[in-house]
Predict the 3D structure of the following.
Amino acid sequence: MALMFGFKKKSSKIELLAPSDGAVIDLSDTSDPVFSTGAMGIGFGLEPTDGSIYAPVAGKVTLIAETKHAIGFETSDGLQVLIHLGIDTVELKGRAFQLDVSQGQRVQAHTKLGTMNLRQIKAAGYKTTILTVITNSGELDLDFDLTTGETQSGRSVAQVTKK
């Protein structure tokens, strides 16, 4: 089957799962302007109530920030997905994060990636919002359907379909 924009020609639908327990919010309602304006791509925010972090998609881990606050994935359909743990948490230089995956590793959706210490992040004056974005969405013609509100890790909260 021929590939078009990384998707099989036939309609391809991908679900993005909640990376943690908490409340899903529109990306525009997050407090990081780089993400809230959509500059990094389409996606959503999640205000976590638990520090356990799970993969929002199945794919290959393509990036782990040295400071452990960001993890990138590429799906078999060519979506490049980034989860960013907290707002401005790069300043913590890895403190408050414990990751159990490595770059190059293949993961299934809802694989446990590690933990973030919500208390420690808040005590340092940072927000714990988890941002999940499709960083190559500007190159793709996608429909994005988000369900906001309380959720649990592993639940589908967004559907992405090639137009």
Summary: Helices lie at 33-36, 118-123. The first helix runs from residue 33 to 36.
